[in-house]
Design a protein that fits this description.
single chain, about 210 residues, 12-stranded mixed sheet, Aminopeptidase, globular, alpha+beta, 5 helices
């Protein structure tokens, strides 16, 4: 079980609302002790994010009978698994993280160029190789409560060249309110990058869904 303290539900809601802005999704609504987003995509119909374990998550897991509905918990995988009936699977781990320092923007590696675009409160950074292929990218969105980073990706063939750091630092320049916290959800691999930049883990972030037949 995790030894991280429970995350403030309002912080989870604020992060999830900003994520919806970043992805053009409906804003989250309170549901059964968590927050629901009606994603309505080909792979995901709805997702629920729970700041902590509760009867609402357990009841919901028993009520869902088909793929496309995702349950997410600010807690470790074992805790989430304990609430699930047979037929559910646990996804690779994630981590809800918050920035803990400031860093200057590193120089962009030779042979790359970048583009920045902002629209509707969402900033996008794209880094291209000399061949024209997309080498790295990322998004950020700010609300009155948080500034969040989303979909920070570096192509496997362009890693270890500082592109991820460059994307993060460039996105950070879009912050309008320095007082609001900076948040993101990292993969296992991404956690090391963000930890090196001074980020700290607020909580494990675990995901489960029913496996497709």
């Amino acid at each position: 079980m995790t030894d991280h303290p429970r995350v403030d539900p309002e912080r989870v809601r604020a992060w999830l609302a900003a994520r919806s802005v970043a992805r053009g999704l409906p804003l989250p609504v309170e549901d059964r002790g968590g927050f629901r987003v009606d994603t309505n995509s080909a792979d995901e119909v709805k997702r629920w994010v729970f700041p902590s374990m509760g009867t609402g998550l357990k009841d919901l897991a028993r009520a869902i009978a088909r793929p496309g509905y995702f349950l997410k918990l600010c807690g470790d995988a074992d805790e989430l698994l304990s609430a699930l009936p047979p037929g559910w699977r646990i996804h690779p781990p994630g981590y809800l993280m918050q920035a803990g320092g400031t860093h200057g923007r590193p120089a962009l590696a030779g042979g790359y160029r970048f583009e920045v675009a902002t629209a509707g409160g969402v900033t996008k950074v794209l880094v291209f190789a000399s061949t024209g292929e997309l080498a790295a990218s990322g998004y950020a969105a700010q609300t009155s409560e948080v500034f969040i980073y989303d979909r920070i990706v570096t192509d496997a063939g362009h890693r270890r060249r500082g592109l991820g750091r460059f994307v993060m630092a460039t996105l950070r320049l879009a912050r309008r309110d320095m007082a609001v916290p900076e948040l993101l959800v990292a993969t296992e691999d991404g956690r090391a990058l963000y930890a090196a930049l001074g980020w700290r883990v607020l909580s494990p972030y675990s995901t489960a869904s029913i496996a497709a037949p």
